[in-house]
Amino acid sequence: MAETHGSPNGARTLPRSPWPALIAAWLIPGGGHLMLGRRPLAAAFFALVLLCFLIGLGLHGELWSLGSPEPLTKAAALAQLGTGLPYVVAQFLAHYQGQVTAAGYEYGNVFLLTAGLMNLLLLLEVYDLATGRKE
Questions:
Q1: Phi and psi (nearest 5°) for 99?
Q2: Are 29 and 119 in contact (CB under 8 A)?
Q3: Three-state secondary structure call for residue 6
Q4: Is residue 59 a contact partner of residue 104, using CB atoms and an 8 Å limit?
Q5: What is the number of other CB atoms lying within 10 angstroms of the CB of residue 89?
Q6: Nearest to 78 by CA among 50, 49, 108, 120
Q7: Does 26 have pLDDT greater than 60?
Q8: What dihedral angle (degrees, nearest 10) is formed by the CA atoms of 95, 98, 102, 103?
Q9: Taking 50 as the threshold, does the pLDDT of residue 7 lie above it?
Q10: Helix (H), strand (E), coil (C) string for 37-106
Q11: Which residue, 13, 6, 105, is CA-closest to 56?
């Protein structure tokens, strides 16, 4: 059940739709927080998720494909897809491929997965903020 919020004149109004903020939060890490007026958090989350993603790429981690028949590989791809636009750019526009023989390959995988899962957790917070469940 959706909560209602009071307006300054005392009338009850419905909460705003969380979808624009959720889409912005998925596309650009921190974008949902920016839309909701939380600039310092937006900047911190953008830097944190993007830095984690770039470290993963720098360590030659793998960007997994959704087209794989393996269930765990699909799960990893969904987790990485949580990063949003950085994943899409690296995977489909830059055609990035990890390097299995690199010394940091496994660490890179962890950083890439962490970036995506972290951004997915931020989507939950954006939803709570946009619907008024969290102040």
A1: -125, 105
A2: yes
A3: strand
A4: yes
A5: 12
A6: 120
A7: yes
A8: 130
A9: no
A10: CCHHHHHHHHHHHHHHHHHHHHCCCCCCCCCCCCHHHHHHHHHHHCCCHHHHHHHHHCCCCCCCCCCCHH
A11: 105
Distance CA 128, CA 135 (A): 8
Residue 52 contacts residue 107 (beta carbons within 8 Å):
no
Structure confidence by residue, pLDDT tens digits, 54-98? 999 999 999 998 888 999 999 999 999 999 999 999 999 999 999
Distance CA 5, CA 77 (A): 38
Tokens of 15: 């909460």
Cross-strand bridge partners of residue 13: 5
How high is the pLDDT of residue 134? 87
The helix (run of H) or strand (run of E) holding residue 13 is strand 12-13
User: Model confidence at 11, in pLDDT bands (50, 70, 90)?
Assistant: very low
Distant-in-sequence, close-in-space partners of 34: CB < 8 Å, separation ≥ 6: 24, 42
Distance in angstroms (rounded) separating the CA atoms of residues 39 and 33: 7
- CA distance to 5, 73, 85, per residue, from 132 (Å): 8, 36, 27
